């Protein structure tokens, strides 16, 4: 269940190549989840780490996770 949530959230991520040559990504449905790295692969890894931390912190604080359309199986 949690794996599917993470997979779905990462599928919704947006990526942008910035003027300084680094990559920026965010998951709009998960407020505050973003990453910036020198490579696309690094950005993807950092984004997943940020998402996992966001989920853990949110659950510890009693927050409800954002509802995501289950587009990924």
What key phrases describe this protein's structure?
single chain, 73 residues, Double Stranded RNA Binding Domain, 2 helices, 42% helix, TTHA1013/TTHA0281-like, TTHA0281-like, Type II toxin-antitoxin system HicB family antitoxin
Q: Which helices and strands appear, and what pairs or packs with what?
A:
Blueprint: H1 2-11, E1 14-17, E2 23-26, E3 34-37, H2 40-60
Antiparallel strand pairs: 1-2, 2-3
Task: Summarize the entry for a quick read.
With 73 residues, this protein is of the alpha+beta class. Helix content is 42%, strand content 16%.
Descriptive account of the structure:
The protein is α+β, with helices and mostly antiparallel strands. It has one domain: Double Stranded RNA Binding Domain (2-Layer Sandwich), CATH 3.30.160. It has two helices and three strands; from the N terminus they run αβββα. The protein has a three-stranded antiparallel β-sheet with strand order 1-2-3, with helices on one face. The longest helix is centred in the C-terminal third of the chain and has 21 residues. The protein is elongated, with a radius of gyration of 12 Å. The termini are close together.
């Amino acid at each position: 269940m949690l794996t599917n949530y993470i997979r779905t959230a990462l599928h919704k991520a947006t990526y942008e190549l910035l003027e300084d040559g680094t990559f920026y990504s965010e998951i709009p449905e998960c407020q505050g989840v973003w990453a910036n790295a020198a490579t696309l692969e690094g950005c993807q890894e950092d984004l997943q780490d940020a998402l996992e931390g966001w989920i853990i912190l949110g659950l510890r604080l009693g927050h409800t996770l954002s509802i995501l359309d289950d587009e990924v199986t």
